[in-house]
Write a structure and sequence with these properties.
single chain, alpha+beta, 4 helices
Amino acid sequence: LAIIFSVAFCGLFVLGLPMSVVAPSLSQSSGLTFHHASGSAWNGTLHHASLGGKELGDLQLQFNPLYLALLRTHFFFSFDGLDGSGKGVFETGLFSYLALKNTTMGISIEKFSGQNMLAGAVYLDDVSLVFKQDGCRTAQGHLSTDVLERSASTFGWEGPLLDGTLECVDGALRLLLAGSRGVESVRIVTSLF
């Protein structure tokens, strides 16, 4: 009981710190960059944030302290930037798991495709993912993309809008996408991680 109280006390102390004090360590461990921070670690904003060079705009983070008693960290996040927008929950736990919960976002592909040969976006709708040490444990939600439709000049063919789902198979995250245009249809199955 004393250990749990000590952990909770330390956690609450850190959460009371200004976001400008806490954010540099978050930035070093994740590759997240920002212009300046405001608010507290409890409820703060990283202004002009980017991740891997992709502009997220102002990234708002809200910490739920009730999860400290369960030895978890639980952050609500939201962003609206040039390269996409989204919101959801990020959670980590003592037993080495990472989770995205109730996440909805749209991310522009142009900035992620390197040479800008691809156009379009990927959309996640109410996606929840849980990863543990042995890989993907649970995945649910809906995803869609208009990349084939908007990258017609790259492919020499205007493909359909693709819709699909996510699942975990043998520890890997599998994306299942399908679509059709006229008599042509496309089905893409790919595994990540």
